[in-house]
UniProtKB/TrEMBL annotation, chain A:
InterPro entries xref list: 2-oxoglutarate_synth_KorC, Pyrv/ketoisovalerate_OxRed_cat, Pyrv_flavodox_OxRed_cen
The UniProt record lists the keyword Oxidoreductase: yes
Limits of the Pyruvate/ketoisovalerate oxidoreductase catalytic domain: 14-175
Keywords per UniProt: Oxidoreductase
Keyword match Oxidoreductase: yes
Organism of derivation: Megasphaera hominis
Protein's recorded name: 2-oxoacid:acceptor oxidoreductase family protein
PANTHER family to which the protein is assigned, alphabetical: 2-OXOGLUTARATE SYNTHASE SUBUNIT KORC
Pfam families: POR
Automatic annotation (TrEMBL), chain B:
Record domain Pyruvate:ferredoxin oxidoreductase core: where: 276-367
NCBIfam families, per database record: PRK08659.1
Family annotation (Gene3D superfamilies): 3.40.50.920, 3.40.50.970
Protein name: 2-oxoacid:acceptor oxidoreductase subunit alpha
Stored Pfam families: PFOR_II, POR_N
Lineage start: Bacteria, Bacillati, Bacillota, Negativicutes, Veillonellales
């Protein structure tokens, strides 16, 4: 599956790594693959907590309007994010939530996937902070917007050698969890 | 895999390009959405042998930049609309004393402190007329991170060539968004430095026209005597009061530096203007929405095109005037109450001019422009 134009939104709370997810996916598409990207970020003044989101547009051609209009993919890592952004998901789109934070999954016209990203991160790596990398794995598998190997390279490139094994485990766990749901 | 591009924000592109253009000094005071420029300059400038100074406010920031430039180095400051307001007095001083500098304005919603984190285009007229008296100014409004890189280098070149402050008009969106940038090979672009005096110090007159309209500039500490003032002055720089001829001469020479070199300074982009019946005029980040709207409305059979001034000051009037002759209507798209609309009306002749604007901190979208076009036509 290829996409000429793909819009993604990663939404959660400060400290969950939403900004980093945008950076890594942008690097995969715009750095390692040869696509145009626009990455925007929105966050409050808090270092942790507070609504934040990162939005990425990937296109095979130059991107005019730089803001996400009709997201093909939305990740919600908080109830607030789920309630706010469920409405925008396009009918062909994918809505991924972490049921550890989103207890009440709102109705959306897209396809809903619930993967316990934070719980998986804890069980596979012993560190809940890796939830965003679990999410990247799940996103790569669900959206197929970039190949699994390119996204994995972008993840590994991002971290210092010391942290790569942990993040590789997290990434693989995300891929596996998503693939189990697709089947 | 070798990477052809680097991904960076508009603020990062601006800072890195400034260094590529030879910036040696930065002074600033933090303000959203411009702070990252100061932050990165504080990291990179010392590594490059330059100087970063955090000042106590914006007045001091531009004053320090003027001092550094007078001492011979390329200098920049970065702020947002409220900070630009504070800088206006000294900006006028730099124009009068012909001190090259680059002033980055990451525009945010106004008036006053407005909304710190959201984009706007409310400083287009502040950039033109913010400081008192008639004066020349150059202002560049990039619309992408890649263009931010290239035009920041050009901003320094223009400041150095014409001994005049140059604005870069960014905005909260462009400042913080990331795109791919192809870092140009330094062999492929020009880096210009101010013209230095060739005469001995004893013969130097700091403001004597050498025939080009742009006097050679000595540096403080080089041994050349140079009086710097914001007053109308003679060729040595000393104030001249109550001399209508000298006053007229100096004001005209300052303006002519820009007016006589429009073709070297002005830059614009045209998109699908060849067969256009409707001409949109839009600058900066909003021009991207306008482009998308043009593609959309062309599918409905309406031939629309875009004129995008990259230098908003001097505004590329001659080219726009020529384009206006061939279209049925001109419509500006902007995030303010009509600052581009003003100038477009001046040059459109008999062609009617409309406006699609939004002034709420939200990027004027392609959908809104499209709806506006359907209403206007």
């Amino acid at each position: 599956m290829t996409h000429d134009h793909y819009e993604m939104r990663f939404a959660g709370s400060g400290g969950q790594g939403m900004m980093l997810m945008g950076d890594i996916m942008a690097e995969a598409a715009g750095g390692l693959d040869d696509k145009e990207i626009v990455l925007t970020r929105s966050y409050g003044p808090e270092a942790r907590g507070g609504a934040c989101r990162s939005e990425l547009i990937i296109d095979t051609r130059p991107i005019d309007y730089p803001t996400v209009r009709h997201p093909d993919f939305v990740l919600a890592m908080s109830q607030e994010a789920a309630d706010t952004y469920c409405k925008d998901v396009s009918s062909q789109g994918i809505f991924l939530v972490d049921p550890g934070f989103v207890h009440d999954i709102p109705k959306t016209s897209g396809q809903v996937y619930a993967i316990p990203l934070t719980e998986l991160a804890e069980s596979v790596t012993g560190n809940t902070l890796a939830a965003n990398v679990v999410a990247i794995g799940a996103i790569a598998a669900l959206t197929k917007v970039e190949s699994l190997s390119i996204v994995k390279s972008a993840v590994l490139d991002h971290f210092k050698p010391k942290l790569r094994p942990l993040n590789e485990k997290a990434y693989d766990a995300g891929v596996a969890a998503a693939q189990a749901l697709i089947k | 895999m070798a990477k052809k591009y680097e991904i960076m924000t508009g603020n990062e592109a601006c800072t890195r390009a400034a260094l590529a253009a030879g910036m040696h000094f930065f002074a600033g005071y933090p303000i959203t959405p411009a702070t990252e420029i100061a932050e990165l300059a504080s990291e990179l400038l010392p590594q490059a042998g330059g100087t970063y100074m955090q000042m106590e406010d914006e007045l001091a920031s531009i004053a320090a930049v003027i001092g550094a430039s007078a001492a011979g180095v390329k200098a920049m400051t970065a702020t947002s609309g409220p900070g630009v307001s504070l800088m206006q007095e000294n900006l006028g001083y730099a124009i009068m004393a012909e001190i090259p500098l680059v002033l980055v304005d990451c525009m945010r919603q106004g008036p006053c402190q407005g909304v710190a984190t959201v984009p706007a285009q409310g400083d287009i007229m502040q950039a033109r007329w913010g400081t008192n008296g008639d004066h020349p100014i150059i202002a560049i409004a990039p619309n992408s991170v890649g263009e931010m890189y290239r035009e920041t280098i050009r901003a320094f070149n223009l400041a150095e060539t014409y001994r005049n402050p140059v604005y870069i008009l960014s905005d909260a969106m462009l400042a913080h968004m990331s795109e791919r940038v192809q870092i140009p090979d330094p062999a492929t672009y020009e880096v210009v430095s101010r013209k230095r005096p060739s005469c001995p110090p004893s013969a130097y007159k700091a403001y004597a026209d050498d025939g080009t309209g742009i006097p050679p500039m000595a540096s403080f500490g080089d041994g050349y005597r140079w009086f710097v003032t914001g007053m109308i002055h003679d060729d040595t720089g000393f104030p001249v009061t109550n001399n209508p001829d000298r006053t007229s001469y100096l004001v005209k020479r300052l303006h002519k530096k820009i007016e006589n070199n429009l073709s070297r300074i002005e830059r614009y982009e045209e998109y699908r203007t060849d067969d256009a019946d409707i001409l949109l005029v839009s600058a900066g980040i909003v021009s991207r929405s306008a482009k998308a709207a043009i593609d959309d409305i062309r599918r409905e059979g309406i031939k629309a095109g875009l004129f995008r001034p990259i230098t908003v000051w001097p505004f590329p009037e001659a080219r726009l005037a020529a384009l206006c002759q061939g279209v049925q209507k001109v419509i500006t798209c902007e995030m303010n109450e009509g600052q581009i609309y003003h100038i477009v009306r001046e040059v459109a002749g008999k062609t009617p001019v409309g406006m699609i604007n939004q002034n709420n901190g939200v990027i004027l979208s392609a959908d809104t422009i499209l709806a506006g076009l359907r209403e206007e036509l």
